[in-house]
Amino acid sequence: MKIAIVFHSATGTTKQLAQAVAAGASTLADVDVIQAEIVGTDIVEGRFRNSNLLQQLDNADALVFGSPTYMGCVSSQFKAFTDATGDLWAEKRWADKIAAGFTIGASLSGDQLSTIQYMQVFASQHGMLWVSLDIPGNFDVEQRNRLGAQSGLIAHSMDGNVHETDLITAHYLGQRVASLAKRFTAKQ
Ligand SMILES: Cc1cc2nc3c(=O)[nH]c(=O)nc-3n(C[C@H](O)[C@H](O)[C@H](O)COP(=O)(O)O)c2cc1C
């Protein structure tokens, strides 16, 4: 079972969430977790050119997407990555893989949900199966999912520090993706 977390992070907060997702996924037995970071040098003349990273994702059973919210959507670096998957889309290479997503913004309600919804549409374009968060916000006894989105994890940081509750929620998302990916592939 391979789970890849593919993310972009300029100032490190999305990366902290990615690490928490990876730690959560790694708690399950027989799960191999890859953290695939999109960096500036992957993009040449506006196009994402890291074919090794795409190959890593191709080999994974589940993909978790992470991006900061920039101007109400994914960052341009993350979008360059998604645009580079067009050939894989045409070949249905990622169809039936499990997918999920997380994002962070500097505002409490800075349109982070729009970022998650883009990721969900992107996953659907590939025929992937979207995994929601399944934590009922304010009703959760551990107070996880403090910002209350259900489609994916949205987080908030004003100073570069990621709220402990957001990291715990990210850890849970990683566990949930790994658990569902194991169940789904076992039935195939
Ligand atoms: C160009 C730009 C656009 C941004 N747009 C938003 C936004 O629409 N909503 C929001 O809440 N935060 C916005 N932010 C803040 C970032 O999402 C926030 O600082 C985030 O933690 C950065 O993630 P990173 O540390 O992984 O780079 C923006 C930041 C930048 C640089």
Can you walk through the features of this model?
This is p-benzoquinone reductase. Its EC number is 1.6.5.2. The structure is a single chain. This protein is of the alpha/beta class. The protein has one domain (2-186): Rossmann fold. The chain is built from 6 helices and 8 strands; from the N terminus they run βαβββαβααβαββα. The protein has helices at 13-25, 51-58, 76-83, 86-90, 112-125, 164-186; strands at 2-8, 32-38, 43-44, 47-48, 62-68, 98-105, 129-130, 153-156. The strands form 2 sheets. Strands 1, 2, 5, 6, 7 and 8 form a 6-stranded parallel sheet that branches. The longest helix has 23 residues, at 164-186. The model has no long low-confidence stretch (mean pLDDT 96). The structure holds flavin mononucleotide (FMN). Residues 9-15, 68-72, 104-107, 110-111, 157 line the site of flavin mononucleotide.
- Compute the CA-based radius of gyration: 15 Å
Q: Output the helix-strand order.
A: EHEEEHEHHEHEEH
Shape: globular
| Molecules bound to protein | flavin mononucleotide
Q: What is the average per-residue confidence, as pLDDT, rounded to a whole number?
A: 96
Sheet of most strands:
6 strands, parallel
Structural class of the helices, strands and pairings?
A: alpha/beta
Strand content: 15-25%
Low-confidence stretches: none
What's the number of helices? 6
CATH topology description: Rossmann fold
Domain count: 1
Number of strands: 8
Keywords: Flavoprotein, FMN, Oxidoreductase
Pfam families: FMN_red
Protein name: p-benzoquinone reductase
Enzyme class: oxidoreductase
